[in-house]
Write a structure and sequence with these properties.
2 domains; two-stranded antiparallel sheet; single chain; metal-binding; Peroxidase, domain 2; signal; heme; binds protoporphyrin IX containing FE; iron; Peroxidase, domain 1; mainly alpha; binds calcium ion; 42% helix
């Protein structure tokens, strides 16, 4: 059972310590924002929110982070958690008392606020997981080609509704994607349509020029072409205009079951923010470890 003031008697300053460390990292690079948010998502959907995604592989264990679906997680997300953990552990009453999973949840809240998104209270008290296997990632994370039924069933498996799924998808209002993730939509989409007809034409042309056919695979482009550094509801306005980058984004507008939600949040950022806070709070409860199922890692990247 998570609690908002879990560390009140153990490490009363934990929220300020984490926020200062995250702010420092944010000043160094904006990538801190999307990298940390996506890290939380990829953690919670595999074995629950237990920092299993942060574990480094060793000679005897190929960890989650080396599964193909996690190779594009930006290093700045991992670094944010490690830096915040160091700052927490530097305070003697807090040393080895705060889990990496909780630090990731707090850091995510902080980067969302730093980029203009909603601020919210974070539930705490997660333990860090005791296993991390690349093989356990398979089939647990959504693909950019997913349709609404596939998205709904994967989120439902984590206790999240369609409404939660649409709200959380708005995380694509910040951050980057490599060209390979949507190349299918701008080149050889189908026999009749080389370009996905759901893509607005000028946007498709722009994407083609940023991602030419033999582009360097390291090139990444903004997922929100309008406000890539603001955590806002422009994501939904983009969907209304055929500017969803992935099929899994655009389908939220084209499928009549989710379209009303997109329209409503495109016109009301406060309604979106309320739904997002509900959804990310539910995300933070997925598969939480307690008792013998977890511990507090001394080093977030390695088991004790
Ligand atoms: C709904 C299904 C989802 C799919 C299919 C999906 C897929 C993807 C893909 C393919 C990328 C680009 C990765 C790359 O090429 O580097 C990406 C980036 C990202 N995703 Fe998702 N995602 C989904 C949901 C979410 C959720 C729920 C969150 C968080 C709440 C999230 C947060 C992010 C962020 C912040 C980035 C940018 C990462 C960066 O710039 O480093 N995504 N996603
Ligand atoms: Ca996990
Ligand atoms: Ca945005």
């Amino acid at each position: 059972q998570l609690k908002k003031n879990f560390y009140a008697n153990i490490c009363p300053n934990v929220e300020n310590i984490v926020r200062d460390a995250v702010q420092k990292k944010f000043k160094q690079t904006f990538v801190t924002v999307p990298a940390t948010i996506r890290l939380l998502f990829h953690d919670c959907f595999v074995q629950g929110c237990d920092a299993s995604v942060i574990i480094q592989s060793t000679g005897s264990n190929e960890a989650e982070k080396d599964h193909p679906d996690n190779l594009s997680l930006a290093g700045d997300g991992f670094d944010t958690v490690i830096k915040a953990k160091e700052a927490v552990d530097a305070v003697s009453s807090c040393t080895n008392k705060v889990s990496c999973a909780d630090i990731l949840a707090l850091a995510t809240r902080d980067v969302i606020a730093l980029s203009g998104g909603p601020s919210y209270a974070v539930e705490l008290g997660r333990l860090d997981g005791l296993s991390s296997k690349a093989s356990s990632v398979e089939g647990k994370l959504p693909k950019p080609t997913f349709n609404l039924d596939q998205l709904n069933s994967m989120f439902a498996a984590n206790g999240l509704s369609q409404t939660d799924m649409v709200a959380l998808s708005a995380a694509h209002t910040v951050g980057f994607s490599h060209c390979s993730r949507f190349a299918n939509r701008i080149y050889n989409f189908s026999r009749q349509n080389p370009v996905d007809p759901l893509l607005e034409q000028n946007y498709a042309t722009q994407l083609q020029s940023m991602c030419p056919k033999n582009v360097d695979p390291r090139i990444a482009i903004n997922m929100d072409p309008n406000t890539p550094k603001k955590f806002d509801n422009v994501y939904f306005k983009n969907l209304q205009q055929g500017k969803g980058l992935f099929t899994s984004d655009q389908v939220l507008f084209t499928d009549t079951r989710s379209k009303p939600t997109v329209n409503s949040w495109a016109s009301s950022s406060s309604a979106f923010e309320t739904a997002f806070v509900t959804a990310i709070t539910k995300l933070g409860r997925v598969g939480v470890k307690t008792g013998q199922n977890g511990n507090i890692r001394r080093n977030c990247a390695a088991f004790n």
